Amino acid sequence: MRTTAARSRLAGYAGTYALLLAAALLTLAPFGVSVLTALTSAGQFARQGPLSWPSPPTAENLLALLTSTDGFLTPVVVTLQMVAVILAGQMVFSVLAAYAFAMLRFPGRDLLFWVYVATLMVPQVVVVVPLYLMLSEAGLRNTFWALVLPFVLGSPYAIFLLRENFRAVPGELVDAMRIDGAGTLGLLWHLVVPLNRPILATLMLITVVTHWNSFMWPLVITSGPAWRTITVATSSLQSQYNNNWTLVMAGTTLAMLPLVLLMVIFQRQITSSIAATQLR
Predict the structure, then answer these.
(1) Which domains does the chain have, with CATH numbers?
(2) What is the structure's pLDDT at 69?
(3) Of 1, 18, 34, 129, which is most buried with the most CB atoms under 10 A?
(4) DSSP letter string over 99-159?
């Protein structure tokens, strides 16, 4: 009887892992094809197709993009600058706003918070035209500041996420810090931030991924190569290099490589933040 039950459990585990493996392969296959194609020479791709193993692997497609006269390196630099400025602004202003909503008391605090969070329900496409008109009237169209200003002062999602975690800080610790003479900023810097490092690291990763992958706003607010981001540049490769899929896939690989590296570096912090959220 026990042997039959053990076999049933083993079969169930095997079926579950087979299903998970199939789902993982289905999810990762497009990225694998992109990398393999980027490392394949144009001649081999024309002879053997996209599913052939590079023989031998070559970096000529990646180097051709980075050294091309069309300047694929420029969008990479612009995107790095844009993400760095937005990340700095998001972390500073989101932390300060979330701390105010979580720890400070002032009239209309909860109403203001929920009205602000309610903007999460508004699709981004709805505000693209008003933002475009505002920044155009201000003379900022096709500038670096047009890329970052709508996002640098924090976001409803970030403030909501941080506020819920800040509220979980034990009140006894807050009272003890106040007795020791800590002020408002002292509590934030020496207590709240250290206790929420995992969720801050996760928020940093989410912010970087979101704005690295941003496509609609850079496409609308910029024109020409000066302030083109990596997503817009990658999108234009298909028409620029018609049927040259090795170069197109090289651009796709370059676009996703920094995100993969970030995930590898911060995976421990992400796991810690998930575990801490579940414990709460």
Answers:
(1) 74-225+261-279 (1.10.3720.10)
(2) 64
(3) 34
(4) HHHHH---TTHHHHHHHHHGGGGS-HHHHHHHHHHHHHHTT-TTSHHHHHTTTTT--HHHH
For residue 47, what are its two tokens? 């002879």
The whole-angstrom separation of Cα 163 and Cα 170 is 14
CA-nearest of 206, 111, 190 to 157 is 206
Exposure string over 67-82, b if 16+ CB within 10 A, otherwise e: eeeebbebbbebbeeb
Residue 98: which of 156, 155, 154, 159 has the closest Cα? 159
What is the pLDDT of the chain when averaged over all its residues? Answer: 85
Cα-flanking dihedrals φ and ψ of residue 55, to 5°?
Answer: -140, 95
Asked whether the beta carbons of 142 and 221 are under 8 A apart, the reply is yes
Q: What is the pLDDT of residue 274?
A: 59
63 pLDDT tier (thresholds 50, 70, 90): confident
Residue type at position 126: V
Looking at residue 276, its pLDDT comes to: 54
Q: How far is CA 197 from CA 11, 83, 162, 248, in A?
A: 41, 20, 11, 38
**What's the full length of the chain, in residues?**
280
Query: Is residue 223's pLDDT more than 60?
Result: yes
The neighbour count for residue 247, using CB atoms within 10 Å, is 22
Please state, in angstroms and rounded to a whole number, the distance separating the CA atoms of residues 60 and 42.
10
